[in-house]
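Assemble and predict.
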Amino acid sequence: MGLRLYDYVLSGSAYKIRLFLSLLGQEYEGVAVDFYPGEEHKKLAFLAINPAGTLPVLVDGDLTLCDTQAILVYLAAKYDTTESWFPQSDPSLLGRIMQWLAFAGRLTDTVGAARLHDMIGRDLNVEAAREGAHKALRELEAHLTEQGFRNEVFITGKKPTIADIACFPYSALSPDGGIEHDDYPALRKWMVSVRRLPGFIEMPGIHPLHEQHEMAAV
Amino acid sequence: MSRSEAAVNEWYPVAIDELLALGDVQSVTLMEQPLSVIRRENGSVHVQKADGGDCPVCVAYGHVWSSCGKPDHGIFDVPEAAEPGRRMVDCGAVRVKASPLRVVENFLDIAHFPFVHTDILGAEPHTEVEPYKVEIRDTADEVWATKVRFFQPQAAKSADEGQMTDYMYRVPAPCVSILYKTCPPRPGAWDVIALFVRPINEELCDAYAWMALYDDDSAQSDLIQFQQMIFLQDRSVLENQIPRLLPLDPKMEIPTRADTTSVAYRRWLKRRGMTYGAQLVAK
């Protein structure tokens, strides 16, 4: 039995897993859950799979994982033959990756909330969500600027890790929630680097890099 | 208000019929007016203004329709909705920070497919829009574009491979666009995909997608997500269009041949005095 992903096309968290599976070149079976408008994730059939009623959910044989960051860790540990996405031999690197995985949760809580408000009219305090989002993005911007001084393109070094995959979707999708990228040049540069990774896939709200073709032609 | 009288007396979608349960009261905004959409315990649907005044109500094509004014006409007819064997799919409402008219106009455009819906509704280098026919049908006062053909890598959820897809577009009301396209599992028939737009104000709207398809195989959630994927690819482009209002001044933009439907739509809006969400004079 192969991998099964309970998926929603507009979810930034589900996209995190789709993106990582694509970067790994790993096949899977996607099961579309009607999060909106059907709210299938709140119904009994889905709650039997994930009592928390959240997406995405990964099923691999007997294992069911419901936390997005935990799914990234599991997929990297099990399926990344290069052992580069989640290297565990360097304690400092391991600690930093885990720190950014936790940080990614803040992006989901803030950018993700603002996005649900602006996109499908979810009733919540959007000003507070946007303020929290900008605070988180400023922290990421400052870190990426420092990385630039060290000639390191990605969040934890010269090579991408699951820290980048965890932080990318909601950073890139923030304009969907009225959080523009204008003030974050280092973030924009990093996002282009992520989008250039072999096997990168888009989702609605994240556009393909058409300029890449033009640059290749020059 | 005289400026938008034609807009006030139109029907607009205010709720999804199936998601309005007995006893539900949903709050929506239509053209800056707060409304309550109510399903009483006896099943009847009512729409009320903040002062308690009743608005006209009509339930059609999976949605509850209402108006802040007094429409002098019934809701437009979609004969395909009554055809047996079709699956009706409500795709939900998506909020867009753009003029409702821009959202409708975008739905009428095919030239953007390869660039915005890359490898789904279009792909480079197949970017050419062949000449097609546009008319304003005076009998029904609707905009129609016919004989539209375009190469599509994945025309529908039910499509396995790339194909030349035939399209027809129809604008039966200023904030409604219906498209008819080749139905992959049933050659000769048309799939119907409609966009019903409710103006919240002139620069903000909720867009409801509704489909009447011949597709017995796809899961409902797959059909909905395919449509949402397409629409959300448009949304981020629409929110970046400047000006936010749809320009009706011909001096504002230079159309190409592929934009013939858009030109007809804008002229038709102007003729009807439908200026809510439009910019009349270039600024």
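Residues 213-218 of chain A have pLDDT under 50 and may be disordered.
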